[in-house]
Amino acid sequence: MLGLLTTSPSGLEQLWFGLITVLWLGYFFLEGFDFGVGILMPFVSKDDLDRRVTINTIGPVWDGNEVWLLTAGGATFAAFPLWYATVFSGFYLALFVILVALIFRGMAFELRHRSSASAAAWWDRAIFWGSALPALLWGVAFADFVHGVPLGANATWTGTFFDLVKPYALVGGLSTLSLFTLHGATYLGLKCDGDVRDRAQRVARWLAPVTFAIVTAFLGWTYLTAHSRHEVGLVPPLLPIAGVAALAAVGWMVRERLEGWAFLGTGLVILAFFTTLMLNLYPNVLVSSVSPSDTLTISATASHRYTLEVMSWVALIFTPLVLLYQGWTYWIFKKRVTRPGATSAPVSTNV
Amino acid sequence: MGTIMGGISTLSLARWHFGITTVFHYLFVPLTIGLGMLVAVLQTAFYRTKDPAYDRMTKFFGKLFLVNFAIGVVTGIVQEFQFGMDWSRYSTFVGNIFGAPLAIEALLAFFMESTFLGVWIFGRGRVSERIHLMSIWLASLGTILSAAFIVAANSWMQHPVGFSIDPVSHQAVMTNFWAVMTNSTFLLAYGHVLFSAFLTGAVFMLAIAAWHLRQGHDLAGFGKAARIAIVATLITAVGTMFLGDSQAKQMEQQQPMKMAAAEALYNSAYGASFSLLTIGDLSGQPIFQVRVPHILSVLATNTWNGKVQGINQLQAEATAKYGAGSYVPVIWVLYWTFRIMVGLGILLFVVGGVGLWLMKRKRLEQSKHFLRFASWMILAPFVANSVGWIFTEIGRQPWVVYGLLKTSDAVTIIAPGYVAASLVGFTSVYTLLAVVEIGLMIRLARVPTPVLSDTEVDALPELIY
Lengths: 351, 465
Description:
Chain A has 351 residues and is an all-alpha fold. Chain A has helices spanning 11-44, 48-58, 62-79, 81-90, 92-111, 117-147, 167-191, 195-229, 238-256, 259-281, 298-301, 305-332, and strands at residues 284-286, 296-297. Chain A has a domain at 11-183 and 282-332. Chain B has one domain (9-255, 329-457). Chain B is 72% helix and 6% strand.
């Protein structure tokens, strides 16, 4: 008996649901543009030097960005053990693909410039697929959390891999794929100079309306199906609407070449997108498509009070410190990346 | 439940999965910790003395450090995720306690090492020399901190403290975080892990420097690197052995079965002898053995005639306490991993000692035999690290959390096909990575220093990757 009780979450449990949401938001905001840069690399580069310019825009920061994922995973393990155990074992093959993708992608950044030209071409493929697959699969997974997975009594998984790829989840995956790619395009527009910058902006101009269509469809679907599924769900229409509006604004900003604003805009859309999903999930953490009584809730999966208190103190003391020094590195590397020899202009943030 | 496929259970697949991915991950982790600190030492020496030889060595070993770091990072993500994937019942049981150090590790250590390593790689020439030096030290500190939390988590599995069992959910619940972080098992294990990691870095540096000295490359630079490495090898080998010895005594108290199995000691004995070598099987009737009288008692209890408990008595005790079943781990694995680990530790201590003696006699560069031998020693710490962990983890079986949860009750209830696919997948990917990685390491390690800095560092200062 795993204690699947239908009690409402305590303040501390709500706080940790919120903190884990923040960790995922941080991860998708930051690694979102990393993924986008990786996906766009083949399309905005004409030669090897262009590709190196592209990769170097995220060179100093991608690893730190990925730590947000490890922190989100670790925090979920500590604060909601049953949630962690159920999701990670249930999404087994999807997670396997994500892990292999992240392995190849990370190795490629470190190894491609030390490899021969033919090996570098393979590492380039690793960067593209290693970015595109997780960008797609994270959206599928989060859509599944909301619309439900085949979860039987006592958090036992009753379905197969193909129960995870439903139309709603696929649209969710396409949303994150297009959104992260657009986020990467606005990041490249802001962070490099010359041809790569121009090509990235050209991509952003046609990608913005496409993304708008997909994300609007997905958020609309999410909103329309939310209330009928569980009355307690908390979906302020403000957030998805703000997200869609921001996305529309991004479409205009990339045309006007408001680079700083456009990047902020795609970032805000990502935040609104995932906050909508997590609020829709609340007070559950994993919805069962088999029976509502088998849905996992915050309070049924949470750790005991003492663990959450210890973790709260640790988070309170160290999170500001992390934000401070991680922010500082973005400040150090604020210069645009250019081809060697080209004169580099300072970043005009236009904010 | 569909947990058997062609006679292979999800449990054994999941155990191989964990074993292979973890041993592979841990090939790179100690080198990251050890070499990170040594690169920081080299850079500090350059910062203080402005001797360009130290700068060349910093860049040379820094490159090897980075290639190694990357593979440690990407294989580390798998580590955090596979607890949930393959061991979901374990994760549910221990999450209250085991999850906390993992989350804290990411927050305190992983952010620190990855962020400041980014500054170190890309910041040369963009931040001041002082900040650049600080960033390698902070990255090194991050690696040292990360080991603390993961070893604390592992030590809790070896010797659970600061917890109670929830009567409703049957989960282990943390009652005292301080007790978890000051677990006596943790304090010794952390010291042993850290010293052996520094030893790994030192031997790695010594082996490569020795190779270049034999080739006659950059005698000023590699001579300095070799000297630092020799001193570090000697100090850290002593530290590793000293702590390992304390751990053996603690093991006799906390996990006597592990000690008995390591010695293939079937019956309790006073003044037990230590078996140096056994030919035949380990069932208690060996064909040929070399035994040193009393040494096992000294090792386990610090007294000449102390009592060391035997496998048969411990098995009977465990059955009475926990119910029917075998509580004996795989004896031959423990017997041999223990001997290989200890033997290699002593060997590296000797290498450090001989190296120091040659240094004092000012004959290091001329001692071709020593340099050749030292180069081959590069394999020793990696083997010792691997067998050390295999010993610790296999020796805890059948428990995953000692005395609380058996490994067979910890595994995810899932069709074996999933785990088999993942096992085959990760094994193939890791094999590919190993080939690429080792090839690249050998190539980078063989390039003499000045050539390296001309083509790779200075040609494209704007683009690092």
